[in-house]
Amino acid sequence: MFRMALTGKKKIRKMPDERRREITEAAARLISERGFNGISLKDVADEVGMSQPGLLHYIGNKDGLLSLLITDIYDTSGTPDDFLRSGLPGSDPEAPLFPAYLRFLVRHNAQRRQMVQLYMVLEAEAFNPEHPLNEYFLNRPMEVWLHYSKYPWKLPPGVEWDVHMQAIVRMVIEAMDGIQLRWLRQPPIDYYDEWLAFERVLFPSPVWDGYR
């Protein structure tokens, strides 16, 4: 007679940052495919192999999931501060070039297609006044303007930030949203090349020569 050794899998406890990354990746994938209203917290929990109570520990509630995805992740990368730290042409912290920053942002977004798709899906859904991000998207143009206004952009002679640039920043947002929608569709386009075509319109020669 012999005793059979019983072996079981040891549960691996993951670090909070790793768990949070898994949650955001799963949620971004599911929402970009089905929309925010088309998923449940159980869907996200099942995707990452967690219980719902375990998931709630990280996000609080379903609206907290959106906050984690948009305000804590999407909005905190590809920022002007990231550009100023990049050492790229035009990133002089004392006199950065605004069009150069926008090219940096386009390249950054081109590397996170799923997050961009998530963002565009949520923006469309948020037309509904009951959507948790309705106010966020309503306020977005002004919030972007105020944020960009904190930086000492180097502008062409005769172009003043507070006087001339608010309409341009608004059109930048509109152009980027439109390009991103087209980029996500078929047949594919080159996101960066398409932006360069818009850049020539928004920041035309000869006024912006040397300031792009």
Automatic annotation (TrEMBL):
PROSITE patterns: HTH_TETR_2 (PS50977). The keyword DNA-binding applies. It holds the Pfam family TetR_N. Keywords: DNA-binding. InterPro entries: Homeodomain-like_sf, HTH-type_TetR-like_transc_reg, HTH_TetR. Residues 40-59 bind DNA. Residues 17-77 form the HTH tetR-type domain. GO terms for molecular function: DNA-binding transcription factor activity; transcription cis-regulatory region binding. This is AcrR family transcriptional regulator. The lineage of its organism: Bacteria, Bacillati, Actinomycetota, Actinomycetes, Bifidobacteriales.
